[in-house]
Amino acid sequence: MTLRLYNTLSRTKEDFVPLDPAHVGMYVCGPTVYDFAHIGNARPVIVFDVLFRLLRHLYGESHVTYVRNVTDIDDKINTRAKERLAGRDIPILDVVRELTDETGRVYREDVAALGCLPPTDTPRATEFVAEMIAMIEKLIVAGHAYVADGHVLFDVSSKPDYGKLAHRSLDEMLAGARVEVAPYKRNAMDFVLWKPSDAQTPGWESPWGRGRPGWHIECSAMGEAFLGETFDIHGGGIDLVFPHHENEIAQSEGAHGGHPLARYWLHNGFLNVEGEKMSKSLGNFVTIHELLQDWPGEVLRLNMLRAHYRQPMDWTLQGMKESWSTLERWYAEAEPVADRHIGEGFLAALCDDLNTPQAIAELHKSEPKDLAGGLSLLGFSTISERIEQKAPVDMVEIADAIAARIAARKARNFKEADRIRDELVARGIQLMDNPDGTTSWELKR
Ligand code: AMP
Ligand code: ZN
Question: Is the whole model's pTM more than 0.70, yes or no?
Answer without folding.
Answer: yes
